[in-house]
């Protein structure tokens, strides 16, 4: 039974990563191609005592397309949102509006059962990885950056005024977005300042 096989991963996402509490409203925004994953997350959320709502839409045409308006309105009223969808709604206005209201959003774009059953998720120490990401983010300071590699990459650009974006794998507060098992620190160069050479082997 597939639900049993992936139950450890689903429970970890719900309890440790999303911090779902009894009595919270857990909204699962999904599409018709991702219903199996949505059901597994719904079961794990209900086990934590959450009120669970599954909203199903037709798959979007591309990443960040808006969900239908009834789902967008429901997103504003949730405590936590899970998004097992074919295309990401991470930067949809509906998602941004929900986060401004303090809703926690856990991205699950193109999740598969293999991921829920993987060591990358189940064995990950997200508290430790989150602390490592925080320390790495402290290095992303200054005005200029340079990336080099033995293969010949030598790239320079400005990061003046840009703050790093941290994905911790676990929530650090309300109105946040996470995408476990992903843990990363990223930042964008100032547009028009990049110069040099990139070698991809």
Q: What does this 3D model show about the protein?
A:
The chain is an alpha/beta fold. It is built from eight helices and ten strands. Helices cover 31% and strands 21% of the residues. The strands form three sheets. It has a five-stranded parallel sheet with strand order 2-1-3-4-8, with helices on both faces. Strands 5-6-10 form a three-stranded antiparallel sheet, with no helix packed on it. α2 packs across α3 and α4 runs parallel beside α5.
A few lines on this structure:
By secondary structure, this protein is of the alpha/beta class. The protein has helices spanning 2-5, 7-17, 35-47, 69-75, 93-100, 113-116, 119-122, 126-137; strands at 25-31, 51-57, 80-83, 104-107, 144-148, 154-158, 165-167, 177-178, 184-186, 195-197.
Labels describing this entry:
single chain; three-stranded antiparallel β-sheet; alpha/beta; 201 residues; five-stranded parallel β-sheet; 10 strands
What share of the residues lie within helices?
A: 25-40%
Helix-strand string: HHEHEHEHEHHHEEEEEE
Q: Compute the gyration radius: what is it?
A: 19 Å
What is the overall number of helices?
8
Q: Per the principal axes of the C-alpha atoms, what is the gross shape?
A: globular
Poorly predicted parts: none
Give the helix/strand layout:
Blueprint: H1 2-5, H2 7-17, E1 25-31, H3 35-47, E2 51-57, H4 69-75, E3 80-83, H5 93-100, E4 104-107, H6 113-116, H7 119-122, H8 126-137, E5 144-148, E6 154-158, E7 165-167, E8 177-178, E9 184-186, E10 195-197
Parallel strand pairs: 1-2, 1-3, 3-4, 4-8
Antiparallel strand pairs: 5-6, 6-10, 7-9
Helix pairs in contact: 2-3, 4-5
